Amino acid sequence: MAVVVASAIEVTGQHFEGNDIPFAVGVAVFTADKAVCKENFVVNINPDKKDWKTVWKEKGYEMRCLEECWSAPRLDELMKLAHFTCVTDMWAAVRACYSAAYRPGGEVCFVYDTIGHDAAIIANGIIHAGGVAKFLHNKHPWSVKEIDIGSFRDGVFALDPLKATQAARTIVHNHIPANNAQTIGEDFFWIRSVLLKRAVLNGKEND
Questions:
Q1: Rounded Cα distance, 44 and 7, in Å
Q2: Alpha-carbon torsion 81, 86, 87, 92, what sign?
Q3: What is the dihedral of CA 55, 86, 26, 116, to 10 degrees?
Q4: pLDDT over 60 (residue 30)
């Protein structure tokens, strides 16, 4: 069975050509359908404990993101998990975590909410933290897959409405990235089970 590495990120905004940065990454590593470890990698973007609007204004972050996606209590809670003072050190730690997930001769499946956003930001960060990571190399001897959960989720909800109802009731995006990564990984295994059951049913209908 492949090792599944689910990841989630938090950012200050979407103006990455300006001043916005990814400042938190969560990773959850699964074997079978169980999370065997999860970890937060968080940069302290407010070491002086200023008002959060002041932080956003002084650093030139996207104010819309603060107003629509964050609250002071959530940011304060996330900063309690901060172990890094710069983004480069955070990416180096994420890279080490990814590399530790490998098993010789095995398969690694990287799972994200969106490949176009989350995976692109993570790959870019890891590359700038110390060169191209081994898992990005085309000649790597182990099998590597990347899966975009966001593109599957809505369609599979239609196949399993009970899960959709439960998800709407119980899943809360709490901005603790490792928890969000665990949810993404659990969704991967749920989507996989629904599609496998569907394939079996279709096979029986075609017999």
A1: 19
A2: negative
A3: 80
A4: yes
Using the predicted structure, report yes or no on whether residue 78 has a pLDDT greater than 50.
yes
25 and 6 in contact (C-beta within 8 Å)?
no
Q: How confident is the model at residue 2 (pLDDT cuts 50, 70, 90)?
A: confident
How much is the pLDDT for 169?
A: 41
C-alpha triplet 145, 148, 153: angle, nearest 5°: 135
Task: Please give the Cα distance from 22 to 90 (Å, whole number).
Answer: 10
Q: Match 């890279």 to its residue by tokens.
A: 95
> Does position 66 have pLDDT exceeding 90, yes or no?
yes
Strand partners of residue 35: 30
Domain 3-206 class in CATH: alpha beta
Looking at per-residue pLDDT, the higher value among 34 and 46 belongs to 46
* Cα–Cα distance, 186 to 170 (Å, whole number): 13
Written as six digits, the tokens of 62 are 């996207």
* Contacts of 113 by beta carbon, 8 Å cutoff, 6+ apart: 8, 148, 149, 150, 184
Ranges assigned E (strand) in the chain: 3-11, 22-31, 34-42, 107-112, 143-148
CA distances from 181 to 7, 161, 174 (A): 5, 23, 11
CA–CA separation, 58 and 99 (whole Å): 36
Task: Let me know: does 127 contact 135? Beta carbons within 8 Å.
Answer: no
The residue ranges of every structural domain in the chain are 3-206
